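Help! Submission page says 'invalid entity' but I think these are all valid:
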Amino acid sequence: MAAPEATTALAPTPRRRWVPRIALSQELVLFLAIVALFVVVGAINPRFVAERNLQSIFLGNAYIAVAAIGMSMVIISGNIDISVGSLIGVLATVSGTLAVAGVPIVLSWVIPVLLSIAFTTTMGAMVAYLRIPSIVVSLGFLSILKGGLIVVTGGAWINALPEGFHLAQMKPFGIPMPIYFMVILTIAAALWMRLSATGRSIYAVGGNAEAARLSGISRERTVVKVFAIHGFFVGIAALLYATQLAIIQSTVPPNLELTIITASVVGGVSILGGTGTVVGSTLAAVLLAAIGSSLIFINVSPYWLRAVQGVLILVTVLADMWRRMRQARGRGR
Amino acid sequence: MLRTMTLALLAGVFAVPAMAQDRWDGADSLDTNPLACDGSPGEMAMKEYDGGQPATMSDKMGQEITLIDVPKLVGIGYFAATTKGQAEAAAELGNVNVSTDGPTEANIDDQITFIDNYITQGVDGILFAANDPVAIAPVLKKALGEGIHVVGYDANSEPDAREWFVNQAEFNGIGKAMIDAMAEEIGADGSFAIVTSTFTTPNQARWIAEMQAYQAACHPNMTWLETVEAQEDNNLSFNQATTLINKHGDDLDGIFGMTSVATPASAEAVTQAGACGEIAVVGLATPNAMKPYVASDCVKSVVLWNPVDLGYAAVYVMRAVVDGKLKPGDKSVEAGKLGTLSVVNGSEILLGAPFIFTKDNINDFDF
Amino acid sequence: MSDTTAPRMRLTVTHELVLLIALFVSLAVLSVTAERFMSVGNLLNQGRLMTEVALVALPMTFIIITAGIDLSVGSMFGLSAIMLGVFWHNLGVPLPAAMALAMLVGTAAGFFNGLLITRLRVPPLIMTLATLALYRGLAEGISQARSVRGYPEWFFVLGQGEMFGVPTQLWILVVAIIIFWIVLTRTTFGRSLYAIGHNETAARYSAIKVDRIKLIIYSLSGFMSGLAGVIFVSRVSTTRSDMGTGLELDVIAAVVLGGTSIFGGVGTIAGTVLGFTLIQLLKNGLALTGVKGDATIVVIGTVLILSILITNFLQHRRGGDG
């Protein structure tokens, strides 16, 4: 099973000239699912597809999509980061504290991103060089960040943020800033993953670390780089998270790490490492957000809302498995 | 098989919502008790003391005591405010040491563990705000059994698991204050939706149930649209409130925020949707978080008791219990700057009617 | 076979030693800093409080040894708790039968995980991430967010009572630990778990019924979550649909602290037992010393990373010498 996946990994371009069934990539499945959702729910309640609601869905969840880009890279490299939700909580607090303290606003945006990169790079180095499994490192840091944040802040909320701090509320050309971040970062990351040598080495390390080593790719250095880049995306996500509302809660957002990881895996990133794309994870983040919103629009009983959400996640996962099986069979012929 | 499975699940999804959408009204097995529409006090049934008693009577009368405060969770503005009030009371009294420690999430299991540890450590008294009235009872009874005094505030336990409960406002009082404030803003035939934490949170569930009962009795023409969950999460509350605004459009006249997180987030959603003045926001919240929205006239009234006073009263009540000044059967207790507080419902001490913060008075408060 | 297992045995013993030393050092320090820590009453009470996590950590050890994972344990725990209330209160089933049915629901939930993992080859992490959401949603939907209370007195013996001076559930835990230990160390089934974790393809070729074994361990995880859920209901006298939220992280922390490798093939029940004991005693001892809860989680996170780090360091150095 690992072998054919590794092949696709090294040549991730979908072969569109073959029969359609092979071209059915997870990105396409997700895209069609999003379109289907908007058509069906829009037919039931036209307000769902009103521009205002579409904007809200993208705007309110862009930070999840951005964080899922970095998470996807980490997972593709065969690792995981469970501390991401706690890190976003800490970085948002840092950003707000700096802004309130009168630090120039640009610095209060940039410093958290730099801190984030420094932090995840350290984590990556522990994974790569000290050989502690990433799940252990990040589980440990989850506790440390979460507890540490309350020790330091006592849970006091940050308000009275200065004018001009709210990056995520800005609307150049009438489109909210978070949407720019989500779209541009996704495209840039996708191109980088596909075209750059480092980007491709991530697939190689995740797919088959031994083969990657033999072909001269340093697993250690690749893992550290992946975590550093992941830190950048987490930093941006934290920034969008912090600047969206007038108040920063200075606590760790509950279950955010699970939401982000779910977006990555529903996006088709294989948890075994080696396959997946960041376009898929962004589409998945949008799909999950749209599902959450649509269930309210079509009046699903509030008691059953979470169950329906769970079934839909499962359906997406199974559809992805089905697609892969067909592909594997198609290739076998 | 895979395809069959996927299709079966998908079919299941469409079967589930086919069940009639029930409007969530805080349903649990308890009765509601709506107040009279004109605010005339209802018949207060005289009730015998129904609290518990510690196994051994303490001999710390007038001596220095050490108290531990275990709120539902630490790290939110509301319980930071009650902690502040407790510290104020302790400073005034001079013979009380009180510190706050609790779980980082409103988790019944963690809260029990915290209390259990402090029983072992040995304190003179425990102040608590329960995540679940029944789940917390066994460990509180254990504390009473060890001769530790137990006083609750904010969220009650079963009565016999503690001695006294400092009640910030009766559930039906909150229900009336919220609905009346909303009716005043959106009119007798307006329609509203609710953003709450989770359906299982006991206080919120009771408030919504009382709101429902009071609205049905006193403002029958108001339309109750729906209730959504948003945990204690700022961004999720914002997203949910925005979804409600987008879904109902002009049909939505008002949003209730049921937690100190949901209310400012709903106000933010209304502000960012440019719907200030069209959609009213009424809710429970701490004044600091609401000042910007009240200042911009987006929010007219915020309902809350003063949590600093609540924490303050809890420490005074505990001191009175230890000193033997508050015994079963007593009808009132002295609570420092708050004056005399009366005993209701057998073993509850009432802080007062809920307070309404408006543009005129909100800047007088800092918590 | 013995040649390949011998070095692994040595390595795991080393990690357990590290843990054992950590445990003794903590015990020594904590019994000095907190005078009430070292009492039989306190220690037994800690056993009561950790039983739920511990019971779920046992099958989780099996699963992680096969290089799998089960993130849905907290939701299966909550679903079983809710079903106990629903069967007994809403459907009028006698309480003992309702307890059995609740555990059966847990087992069925675990079986469903296992079925899709083995038949459809859904990676365990993805499968259980999806059912983490699904089972929690079912618990909320079925219960309509209502609590069930008012259980009869005898039921509380399980979670709040004592047998021969020891908390009732601690007996269950001890029996479970012994069974899981025997299964892992003394049976073909146990050896197969390591084989699957080391190299699943090779295990298939050596006629190990990989799918059947996986189906069993995921069902077992559901069963133990159900059992823990029932015990928890008895301990707190009520059911709520949000019970067990976040349980998965506590359980996984205990198992990996115990030295079970997330990559599979390595791990012992003794390590897991040391893992959850150390976490519980640290939490308790630090609280009794006067350290607050938020600072305590910082310490636990640090211990988790350090313990694995120390083991890696020791193994690496010895590897270098050899």
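Support: the input was valid. A stray whitespace character was the problem, and the output above is from the cleaned input. The first helix of chain A runs from residue 2 to 10.
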